[in-house]
Each structure stands twice: as structure tokens, then as C-alpha cells.
Amino acid sequence: MKPIPRSAAILTIIVLVCAAAASLATLAWRGSFPDSSPGPAVNSVLAEARGWSAATLLVAIPLAAIALAAAGRGSLRGRLVWVGSLAYFVYTYLEFAVSPPFSALYLLYVGAFACAIPALVIGAASIDVDELSGAFGKRAPRRTIAVFALAFAVLLALAWLKGIVVRTVAGNFGWPSGEDAVGHVVHALDLGLQVPLGLAAGLLLLRRRPAGDLVAAIMLVNAVCMGMSLTAMVGWASAASGATLWTAGPFAIASGVAVILAVAFFRAGAVASRERVKLPSPGSEPLGGHVVRGAPRSRRAG
Q1: Phi, then psi, of 5 in degrees rounded to 5
Q2: CB atoms within 10 A of CB 248
Q3: Can you state the angle between helices 44-55 and 179-189, rounded to 10 degrees?
Q4: How far apart are CA 218 and CA 83, in angstroms?
């Protein structure tokens, strides 16, 4: 396997530094997200951002750092997790950068997604997709993952398209402002990034294409990070407003399913790797119940 490109590793470190700084600032500084509505009401945007930042700081950043280190040691699974985590950082900080409000953390958001995009492209291009089918063997739950990916993509698309189509047919156009502007951005990013990723993963897996395992790995890691961030975001906002924490339940369930599938998928890679190690090499012969590599064949005396 080719070593990970140094440029992608450096870009990833910059992403993690920007993400950590933005997350810590959001958690510690109330002015990181100015309230969109005047008065003593709860700053719901700040509460949601704090929940998302907590998950980024505690889950996504450590996961990406560990995966990058493993990829540097030649781990294929580490490389896939690393690339998948970069997809999460692209979505997260592109959303933060283009959504209101404008804050002192703006340049950190731009720096994070601007470095995550080329790192993701370079990292994915360094993976030989023809090796992936053998790397994960037949134990990987590809069909189950495909169903999950397609269901996720279809349900997410339907959730947003319903309101968009209704407003379009009614001619309800205009300039969104405040929290509505954030929703406008989320719809665009979900329909333009998350839905195509889910559809691509599901269809490639069902058609047994070599790239299916690569896209599925990216989708699963992204789904785990996104699910935990959404759970934390809704839970934090609910706690801040005094609402029930059960509203975060559906996101926690979806996140749990993504974790289970991701563990099953990458564990299949570990099992396949151990099985390949046990196989004798082409030039070895069994001797006394053991495999002796390079054992010379006996020759008849002349």
C-alpha cells in the first residue's frame, strides 16, 4: 500500500487544529454565536452549536487523529476511517461558514473546510479500490449497509423536499433571515452532499462495484459522527430550553445503528486480514503439520 500523502496529512492536522479551536471557543465563549432574537429568550442557536461542538471535540477529532496515526503506520482500515472523518469536517465547517451569524470564529470555519476538501480528495485517491473487496472479504454486511444508506438518503430527501416543493408550488420565495437562513443552508448541504453520498454507497454496494467499500466506509464514518453530533445538538438545545431530552431519541437510535454497522464492517476487515496472514505463501509446503516457507524439494540421486 502506498504511504499516505504528506500533503493530506498536513492538511488534516490543520483541520483538527481549526476544529478544536472553534469547538473549545464555542463551548467556553457565549459570544461565539450571537443570539438572532433580542431579549432574554434562550439562545437556541448557541445551544445547538455547543452540542455539535461537544461531539466534534469528544468524538470526531479524536477519531480522525487516531485514524490518521493508524493510516501512517500502513493500516487500510485506519486510512478509510481517516477519509470518512474528513467528510464530516467538510460538511460541518462548510455549514458553519456559510450560515449566519457572522462571528469571530468565521476564519476558523473557512480554514477547516478549505483544508478538509483537498485532504479528502487526496486521501481517497491514494486508496486502491481494487484491493478493498479482498481486504474486507465476504463477511462484511454489505447488503445491510446498502439498505441503511439508501433508507437514510431517501428519508432525508423526503424530509426536506416536502417543504421545499410546497413552498415552490405556492410561489413562497424570498430572503430567509435569522434561524430560517440556517435551515436554508442545511437543506442545501443535506440534499447536495449527504443524500448523494448515501445513494452512491447503497447503489455501489448492491451492484458489487469495487468502489462500493470505499464509499460505504466514508458514509459509515460520516454517519457515526453526524449522528452523535445531531444527538448532542438536539439534547443540548432541549436541556437549555427546558424541553424533554427524548427529542434526541431518534437521532441517538440512528447513530447507534450507524455505530453497529461501522463496527461490523471494519471488524470484517480485521477478520479478513488475520485469515490472509494464516494462508501459506505460494512457495511453502506443509511439513509435520506445519508450514515451512521456502523448504527445498528433495532430489533423486543421480
Answers
A1: -60, 135
A2: 22
A3: 40
A4: 6
pLDDT at 47 over 60: yes
Q: Strands 284-287, 290-293: parallel, antiparallel or unpaired by DSSP?
A: antiparallel
pLDDT in tens, 189-227: 999 999 999 999 999 999 999 899 999 999 999 999 999
Percent of the chain at pLDDT above 90? 68
Residue 226, C-alpha cell as written in the block: 453526524
Ramachandran category for residue 281: left, alpha or beta (phi over 0 → left; psi -120 to 50 → alpha): beta
Burial of 209 (0-12, 13-18, 19+ CB in 10 A): middle
- Contact 243/284 with Cβ under 8 angstroms? no
Distance CA 241, CA 41 (A): 9
262 is written with which cell numbers?
461501522
**Per-residue cell: 69:** 496515526
Q: Which three cell numbers stand for residue 170?
A: 405556492
**SS3 of residue 292 by DSSP:** strand
Place of cell 468565521: 106
Distance between first and last Cα of the chain: 46
Contact present, 113 and 93 (Cβ < 8 Å)? yes
Nearest Cα to Cα of residue 15 among 76, 64, 48: 64
d(CA 236, CA 32): 16
Note the pLDDT tens digit of each residue in 75-112: 999 999 999 999 999 999 999 999 988 899 999 999 99
Residue of 217, 186, 200, 280 lying closest to 76 (CA atoms): 217
Report residue 293: phi and psi, to 5°: -85, 130
